Amino acid sequence: MSLSSHGCFQVLDSVSQPASATTSTSLSMLPTLRRLYATLPDAAAAARTASTPQAVRLRRAKQGIEVEPLESDATPEGLTPSEFARYQRALAKGELLQNDGTNLTEAEWLERLDSRRSRLRGVRDVTKAGEAETEVVGQKIYLPNIIFKMVRNHTPPGQPYNPYEATFRVPQSVTKTDIRSYLLAVYGVQTTYIRTDNYQSPLLKMQGQPVTTMADRTYKRAVVGLVEPFYYPLAEEDMPRQQREERRKSFQNLLGLERIQRDRQMYMLRVTRSVDGKGWKWRTGATASRGNILRLIAERRAEREQAVENVKARIREERAKGPADAL
């Protein structure tokens, strides 16, 4: 499989291979698996900062660490505020002291940290028959039936779409390590960070029925940082006028949208027409139709005006009888 440039995943012939063969093939094509933050583009670093959890952002704001929406909070060497704090603690404890009496620099410490992260995330470098190979550590799953739904990133109004992020809807049982391994082994997509949050479906309460939920409203959202940019197809409202018209014309030729709309209108005419064909049948007295609403308004206005006329006629009759008759 490979990540295509059309906003979907393309399935290649290698899908039918076992997971072990697919994993070894994907790993052999990758020169490195380390997360070198210093080599990430500015847009990727800004996306990583923007996707930081809210609790972390609030804690950093109390410490005086605040950045603009499209800027990164990383140091020039690529360390995030959390990594920089860890580096400072290790430096104060003397854990970074080398044999020659010097301390590890920030870039050297980050490279060592990234190599350790790669090992902890189920990948290690081994030597077999005198050759270095990359081996996957952990349980191998053959033909996984996990569904990853790729959706468009959440982009605030006025900000550009960031191609160094991808958003997926995954099952709630999938962990961050599973997401990273799945994207790398199946699609060959390298990731730098993963943010996940769970969404619970609202409860549907209907009279006389038990409380239910909507299956498609309960999911886990995974925001994944990408090493290579992925340009999601433009939305129709973001396209130029000529491109938007060409897109609608292509949809019309492929799907026949006008014919579907015309058939839907004819169906509504048939189901609302009376049996004898001389009128229309209304489901209720307050059907949400313009003509029916105007008819009901006119009837109520006529009733109100008739009641006023009756009161006026009775008052005139009483006046005509005189005071003696009235007593």
Description:
The chain is α+β, with helices and mostly antiparallel strands. Helix content is 42%, strand content 13%. The strands form three sheets. A four-stranded antiparallel beta sheet has the order 5-6-8-7, with helices on both faces. It has a two-stranded antiparallel ribbon with strand order 1-2. A two-stranded antiparallel ribbon has the order 3-4. Helix 1 packs across helix 6. The chain is elongated, with a radius of gyration of 34 Å.
Please provide a brief summary of the model.
Helices cover 42% and strands 13% of the residues. With 327 residues, it is α+β, with helices and mostly antiparallel strands. The longest helix is centred in the last third of the chain and has 37 residues, at 290-326.
